[in-house]
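User: Watch each token:
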Amino acid sequence: MDPVLLVLLLAAVTSAACWILSLVTKDTSWVDRIWSIVPIAYTWIFAIAVITSGGDAARSVLMAALVTLWGARLTFNFARKGGYSGMEDYRWAILRRRMSPVQFQLFNLFFIVLYQNALLVLISLPALMAWEHPTPLTGWDIALAALFLAFLVGETVADQEQWDFHQAKKRAGGTLEPGFAMTGLFRLSRHPNFFFEQAQWWVFYFIGAVAAVSAGLGFWGGLINPTIVGAVLLTVLFIGSTIFTESISSSKYPAYADYQRRTSMLVPLPPRRTAAPRRA
């Protein structure tokens, strides 16, 4: 079977399952539970297609292996937070209270289920470029793979710092000033894990672009090709999600506004200096 059709069929089945389960269980976090899993399946479908066709599969296997490492890390982090034990994303509960039942079910179907499952296909599609252009690995592939791994390590560190903070907060009885993590990588970025997550998928896109360029395609159609849509839409999703998350944090923690003034939202940067209070 054509790997593109197989990916689309798997995505359709996954979307239907997520929607039906959300209605039956009244829990809208089923897409969260498959988020770290289906991109692994999608990229390996393309890699296996290259292998079985007899083409040079090194790049396709490399891309699938990188996504597998990404998925293993994210699955572990999601599992230890209770994501597979029936815990719903707190943001969906807040939106449910703000919307009528009909509005929320439309949001559930079109955004949570359909849009996010479509996005998981789109961010995986650079593997399509490697399938269509099975050229030998280049130095660019190796450099980009190393960069992907560096971002993976960065996200692992950020998640561990956040986990350690929340564990300390739990041991303190649920209250630990200022209420949110702001040391380590969180001193440089309010959401370093979000930054590293997006960065990995941008690198993944460029590995696919290397395949196209190596096959003789130029700037347009090669370096910049239609599969960039996935990385762009993922960034848009993260920015919107970050703004919504921060609106919740600002309402809960008085110190968060000052943290926002001093610290970059996504890209890790040295903290900004705040103006000293004027003397009377």
User: Anything to note?
Assistant: Confidence is low (pLDDT under 50) at residues 276-280.
